[in-house]
Amino acid sequence: MPEAQRISTVPHLPELPAGALLKADPAPDSLFYAEPRLVAHLDDAAIAAVTGLYREVLPAGGAILDLMSSWISHLPAEVAFSTVIGHGMNARELAANPRLSRWFVQDLNADPVLPLAADSLDAVTLCASVQYLQRPVEVLREVARVLRPGAPVVITFSNRCFPTKAVRIWQGLQGREHCALVALYLERAGFAGVEARELLSGRRSDPLWAVLGAAPGQDRSAPAGDGRGSEAGGAAGPKGGVGAAAPPSRPQRRRRAGCRAFPP
Questions:
Q1: 123-135 pLDDT, tens per residue?
Q2: Would you give the end-to-end CA distance of the chain in angstroms?
Q3: Kind of pairing, strands 83-88 and 63-67?
């Protein structure tokens, strides 16, 4: 099946409209990310909130994958990890990141298979980039594969993006709906205990949300269901949980929907 047709039919996410995971700029992502951008994609308060969440959730001494990373990982400075593997789209950005033990460049929209061993990691982080995934369930199933059973994935995001590279449905939603969408991705990928949190309201800083899940602990040989005949699961948590209902079937035009553009 041609790539454009495969993406437009939204595999694993049949409740989303056709074309939901298409982008305004269909050119290969490798071209867009060819030049390094050594800039912060969150403001200081949001970065501090991400770091605080990592301090709470990530296991000290563990092996960590920072997925869709750049020149900074927002990991707590005082916490040591056995390994921090970085993944991203620009080698110069990753080489400038002092927390990475090693790194690799890979376009996950072209190839979602991670070059990592199964059950080899203690946590995966994904900060300010989930909005660019066109094959989110495939990528997150790979994340589940490489995580040890019960290990966490921590996905954080704000309301900023590169508009031409964020998928169509992301730009028609807003914060709590973004949480619902990411929770749906994780549940379809087989994660358990999916939980959404509002970390910052955005009144005095960038808004910030997090969606977390635990890698499945049982037999992973059978793929998670595609959701046909079942409701999209909700996510809620005791610590700032926002209650993620199923995402709307079509992007909604609402005030402050979508994302604010980063500088080019």
A1: 999 999 999 999 9
A2: 33
A3: parallel
